[in-house]
TrEMBL record:
Pfam families: FGase
Name the UniProt record assigns to this protein: N-formylglutamate amidohydrolase
InterPro entries per UniProt: N-FG_amidohydro, UCP029730
Region (Disordered): 1-21
Domain of life, source organism: Bacteria
Parts forming coiled coils: none
Length: 269
């Protein structure tokens, strides 16, 4: 597993902090590019855990539980590059536009985030420069290289969702949801393939859809570039352990390959 070069330290990321961008199978030649915005819950040491106990960083407000394991196993099965973010969404929400109120959210699912209550302009810019920009630059660079070489590319965005919100308790029945906006041709093919798995409760823009005004990854890298894409949301209790993560990778890999074939692109081995 590789990493993009660490940004030049400017007071946020120190020598012992991990680089923000993680890479897995980054030299693989599959047409799929897997991205994972909320893979980790690291916090720069200088931010002192954002003033939160580790138990809060470990729940869904700090990380998409289980999704990195699914993404890595899926990357291996598809022989597809995976680009993932190591820092918590509470440090900087990489799937939000910079002007979104939840980009550095002061409260998440009922939990106040002390370090986000009144951040300075310098703090905000450091989080953008050292955490957000390297991640999206890695994604854009990969896409640019593939398109410049005339090679097909299908974006696969991986997320997970909590079975119930603490601030608004209610069961969320979907096992997996797909999120999409106007450019839904590939997502529709994936939905058709998933429908063959009759034990699944499938959400269509449930529990979330694509918010073009506030979201970033799919709107910018998928919709605005007119790339085929699919965005998955998997319920976290199904992928909380390694066994569940492998099971879901094994569910999704043939689905993606079949959808790719129907789309007219060779998925590789």
């Amino acid at each position: 597993m590789g990493s993009f070069p660490r940004p030049v330290p400017t007071g946020l990321l120190g020598a012992d902090d991990p680089p923000p961008v993680g890479l897995h199978n980054d030299e693989a030649s599959s047409p799929f590019l897997i991205i994972c915005d909320h893979a980790g819950n690291a916090v720069p040491a200088v931010l002192a855990g954002l003033g939160l106990p580790q138990s809060e960083l470990d729940r869904h407000i700090g990380i998409d539980i289980g999704i990195l394991g699914v993404s890595m196993a899926l990357s291996d099965r598809l022989q597809a590059p995976l680009i993932f973010q190591r820092y918590s969404r509470l440090v900087a929400e990489c799937n939000r536009r910079l002007d979104s109120p939840s980009f550095m959210t002061p409260i998440s699912d009922g939990t106040p985030v002390p370090a986000n209550q009144d951040p300075t302009a310098d703090d905000r810019q450091a989080r953008i420069r050292e955490i957000v920009e390297p991640y999206h630059t890695a994604i854009s660079t990969h896409i640019d290289h593939k398109l410049a070489a005339g090679q097909p590319l299908i974006l696969v965005s991986m997320h997970s969702f909590t079975p119930s919100l603490r601030a608004a308790p209610a069961p969320r029945p979907w096992h997996v949801g797909l999120c999409y906006h106007d450019n839904r041709q590939f997502s529709d093919l994936v939905l058709t393939e998933l429908a063959h798995q009759r034990d699944l409760v499938i959400g269509r823009n449930e529990p979330y859809g694509v918010n073009m005004a506030e979201d970033y990854s799919v709107p910018v890298h998928g919709e605005e570039r007119r790339l085929p894409y699919v965005e998955f949301e998997i319920r976290q209790d199904l992928i909380a352990d390694a066994s569940g993560q492998v099971t879901w990778a094994e569910r999704l890999a043939p689905v993606l390959k079949a959808a790719c074939a129907h789309f007219g692109v060779e998925a590789g081995r």
